UniProtKB/TrEMBL annotation:
<protein>
    <submittedName>
        <fullName>AraC-type DNA-binding protein</fullName>
    </submittedName>
</protein>
<keyword id="KW-0804">Transcription</keyword>
<dbReference type="Pfam" id="PF12833">
    <property type="entry name" value="HTH_18"/>
</dbReference>
<keyword id="KW-0238">DNA-binding</keyword>
<dbReference type="GO" id="GO:0009893">
    <property type="term" value="P:positive regulation of metabolic process"/>
</dbReference>
<dbReference type="InterPro" id="IPR009057">
    <property type="entry name" value="Homeodomain-like_sf"/>
</dbReference>
<feature type="transmembrane region" description="Helical">
    <location>
        <begin position="126"/>
        <end position="145"/>
    </location>
</feature>
<dbReference type="GO" id="GO:0043565">
    <property type="term" value="F:sequence-specific DNA binding"/>
</dbReference>
<keyword id="KW-0812">Transmembrane</keyword>
<dbReference type="InterPro" id="IPR018062">
    <property type="entry name" value="HTH_AraC-typ_CS"/>
</dbReference>
<dbReference type="GO" id="GO:0003700">
    <property type="term" value="F:DNA-binding transcription factor activity"/>
</dbReference>
<keyword id="KW-0472">Membrane</keyword>
<feature type="transmembrane region" description="Helical">
    <location>
        <begin position="193"/>
        <end position="216"/>
    </location>
</feature>
<feature type="transmembrane region" description="Helical">
    <location>
        <begin position="39"/>
        <end position="57"/>
    </location>
</feature>
<feature type="domain" description="HTH araC/xylS-type">
    <location>
        <begin position="242"/>
        <end position="351"/>
    </location>
</feature>
<feature type="transmembrane region" description="Helical">
    <location>
        <begin position="161"/>
        <end position="181"/>
    </location>
</feature>
<keyword id="KW-0805">Transcription regulation</keyword>
Length: 354
């Protein structure tokens, strides 16, 4: 009797989660298409695969479907790794190498289903798989923490504080539990507790989906040349906001604070004599910027372009120019320059000094 009741509870929990995931998936599949939405949809599919792979219904399914569901469940940590990058990094773009973690996790799963390798048992392959998955989660947690200070979107900042770390830590906990039990079955109460956790995350996702879709919407490319703050400001600003915007414009255009290496939003807010949150609201609301570093880089890259196009500075090393305009090293400068200008600094210099 108790076993039948437990099985019924298990099926109800899994069915409820799958129903919510179906609704979320249909909404994510609707136009307009976006890479970030597709990655979120892939995460939803992997969670659905995880729910099916652990259910009593799996053995009754055709074996190709069984294998597909197990593979989807296996790549769930990598799907979260991709989705979190797309959500929290406005500069995220899809690259072919991003498939590698998914393929690695899936490949390890296939080897485990085939009985392992002559020199690696199934248990050892499971350890490798879980360590790789845990490394991906730790990496994305670090990325979420690193970008906290430059994020100008209040709603996304809240997600950085609890949703991203919360889900990431939960996945790490599940990986540790699975690693601890190894090939032994987990107790039923622990499986149901896991289902409750997944259900809470799924319920939140379904309730906050529209707000999440707004964050996942494609961002228009910023202009290569920074506009004067006054010319791009919203006309409905209050007198106090207009005054704050003029102080910001003066700090950028006249004092050129953007040229300070490692300038943080807190540093600029202190210089302007306003709280951090007000400066975030000003740059985001009046200037339409989503990231503080991207806002600074508009000024920095424009100044770098001026120097690179100057015949009198054609022998000046690019590293010197990068440091002069506020970058701490050449790597971030090259990436920011190519993202804004569509070419490397060297190519830009060659094209403008012909």
């Amino acid at each position: 009797m108790a076993d039948a009741l437990g099985a019924s509870i298990d099926l109800m929990l899994r069915g409820g989660c799958l129903g919510l995931l179906l609704l979320v998936g249909l909404r994510l599949a609707a136009p307009p298409p976006a890479v970030s939405k597709r990655l979120c949809l892939l995460l939803v599919l992997s969670i659905a695969g995880y729910l099916f792979a652990g259910s009593s219904l799996l053995p009754a399914l055709p074996w190709p479907l069984q294998v597909s569901l197990i593979l989807l469940a296996t790549i769930a940590p990598a799907c979260f790794w991709l989705f979190a990058q797309a959500l929290f990094d406005d500069a995220f773009t899809w690259r072919g190498y991003l498939w590698l973690p998914l393929l690695a996790l899936a490949g390890l799963s296939v080897l485990m289903q085939c009985g392992g390798l002559p020199w690696l048992s199934v248990a050892q392959l499971a350890v490798v798989q879980h360590v790789l998955a845990g490394g991906l989660i730790c990496h994305v947690l670090w990325l979420i923490w690193r970008g906290q200070g430059a994020d100008l979107l209040e709603q996304r900042r809240h997600l950085r504080l609890w949703l991203g770390p919360g889900v990431g830590m939960y996945i790490l906990l599940v990986l540790l539990v699975e690693l601890g039990y190894g090939q032994n079955p987990e107790p039923p109460w622990l499986e149901r507790l896991n289902l409750v956790g997944i259900g809470l995350v799924t319920l939140w996702l379904s309730l906050r989906l529209e707000a999440l879709l707004a964050l996942l919407s494609p961002v228009a490319a910023s202009a290569a040349r920074p506009e004067s703050a006054a010319t791009v400001a919203e006309p409905a600003l209050t007198a106090e906001e207009q005054a704050a915007l003029q102080r910001l414009q003066c700090a950028m255009d006249d004092e050129q604070l953007w040229a300070r290496a490692n300038l943080s939003l807190a540093d600029l807010a202190s210089h302007l004599g306003m709280p951090d949150y007000r400066l975030r609201q000003l740059i985001n609301g009046a200037l339409g910027q989503r990231n503080f570093n991207s806002y600074l880089n508009q000024f920095r890259i424009a100044a770098a372009c001026t120097q690179l196009a100057d015949p009198a500075r054609q022998r000046l090393p690019i590293l010197t120019i990068a440091l002069d305009v506020g970058f701490a090293s050449i790597g971030p400068f090259n990436r920011a320059f190519k993202a804004q200008q569509g070419m490397t600094p060297s190519e830009f210099r060659q094209n403008n000094l012909i």
